[in-house]
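User: Can you recover a sequence for this backbone? Please restate the input before giving your answer.

Assistant: Of course. Working from this structure:
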């Protein structure tokens, strides 16, 4: 979230005349427009014929939505749950479960697949209906963005070539460099980066305000993207009911745009509304901001929970507000109040500067945790068979949640609790 909002501020700073408040208002207005750019559309007849609605967890539990919001599987399947065992950096043996979102797709996995299943289908539906905006698709991210490469990969079969907008540079490590090179290896309509602020701003403003295109926004944070993550939580609930693992006491994940975190919160609210077996007891969702600026804003201002944040795109509070409203408009239950209760009572956001470090790279804390996994980590299926596909504990995202998870798993007061890592990185 942070590098994109800050990147927009950098792009606009050279053009802005007036106070910092005016610039902030302009950035928030642009982010709000981009948040609503994709929107929602019903599936086409071809989608209904080609896709099995029962393959979508959200539709399995709210079947009426299958004819109200477009969805494509993107070749994804149910992501498995594995058990991980390792020794912490201090040598304490710990064990926990992992939801392997990294294995969502054999082409390009990770949590962005669920985020794109509705978004790209909505764009496809509008494109086939003749919406001219959807012939000009923009996807935004930073230099090492998973969002940009995942969108380019999964959109290429059914949609026009897209324009990649890299808003800010990332640390030039291997992970980030591979993502950018992967995107550049695919056919694009155009590409712009942080060294070209005026073309980037012109593209975004034209698409957001002038109808000259559609924007797949930061981290896929829009109602269609969040509903994909709700499906991931419902899928987890089904796996728990089938005996893959006990209902978790604690779920750990990184917070970027807040799309996935918001989806899990809303998913828990929906699971409880539907009276599914899991998540009936106390739950702690532990999130770690991946950017130092937004960790600071959370620590000092509580930006993800504050009342004013319901008007601030890319915060959890705003994301829950808009997605709950869209779900209710589509005919689903109104889960706004229940979701806010979970946000206030069952979500813990860690903001320690030594853990968060800087955006796009390991902190020393997360690096030590990743090295402990690399040296001693083993993965097992429910049957006990060892798993050969390792976790990618990347410094950009998941390692920053992985580090406090293994520390907590070693604490005596948490012994016996069921702990789950939401593995977001492919």
């Amino acid at each position: 979230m942070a590098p994109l909002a800050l990147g927009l501020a950098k792009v606009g700073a050279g053009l802005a005349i007036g106070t910092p408040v005016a610039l902030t208002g302009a950035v928030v207005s642009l982010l709000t427009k981009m948040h609503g750019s994709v929107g929602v559309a019903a599936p086409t007849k071809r989608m209904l014929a080609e896709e099995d609605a029962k393959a979508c967890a959200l539709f399995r539990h709210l079947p009426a939505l299958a004819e109200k919001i477009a969805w494509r599987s993107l070749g994804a399947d149910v992501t498995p749950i594995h058990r991980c065992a390792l020794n912490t950096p201090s040598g304490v043996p710990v064990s926990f479960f992992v939801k392997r979102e990294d294995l969502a797709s054999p082409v390009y996995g990770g949590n962005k697949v669920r985020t794109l299943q509705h978004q790209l289908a909505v764009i496809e539906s509008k494109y086939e209906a003749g919406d001219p905006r959807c012939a000009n698709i923009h996807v935004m991210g930073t230099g090492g963005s998973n969002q940009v490469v995942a969108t380019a990969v999964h959109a290429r079969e059914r949609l026009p070539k897209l324009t990649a907008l890299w808003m800010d540079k990332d640390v030039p490590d291997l992970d980030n460099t591979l993502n950018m090179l992967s995107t550049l290896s695919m056919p694009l309509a155009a590409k712009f980066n942080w060294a070209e602020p005026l073309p980037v701003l012109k593209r975004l403003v034209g698409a957001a305000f002038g109808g000259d295109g559609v924007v797949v926004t930061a981290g896929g944070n829009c109602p269609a993207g969040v509903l994909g993550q709700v499906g991931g939580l419902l899928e987890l609930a089904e796996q728990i009911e089938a005996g893959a693992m006990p209902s978790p006491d604690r779920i750990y994940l990184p917070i970027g745009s807040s799309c996935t975190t918001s989806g899990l919160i809303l998913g828990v609210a929906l699971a409880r509304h539907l009276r599914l077996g899991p998540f009936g007891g106390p739950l702690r969702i532990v999130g770690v901001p991946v950017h130092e600026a937004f960790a600071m804003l959370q620590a000092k201002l509580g930006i993800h929970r504050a009342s004013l944040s319901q008007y601030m795109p890319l915060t959890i509070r705003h994301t829950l507000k808009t997605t709950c409203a869209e779900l209710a408009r589509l005919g689903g239950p109104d889960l706004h109040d229940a979701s806010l209760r979970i946000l206030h009572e069952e979500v813990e956001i860690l903001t320690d500067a030594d853990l968060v470090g800087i955006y796009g790279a390991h902190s020393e804390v997360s690096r030590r945790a990743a090295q402990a996994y690399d040296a001693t980590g083993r993965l097992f299926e429910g049957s006990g068979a060892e798993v050969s596909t390792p976790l990618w504990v990347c410094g950009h995202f998941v390692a920053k949640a992985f580090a406090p998870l293994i520390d907590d798993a070693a604490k005596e007061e948490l012994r016996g609790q069921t702990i789950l890592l939401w593995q977001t990185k492919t």
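That completes the design. Confidence is low (pLDDT under 50) at residues 9-18.
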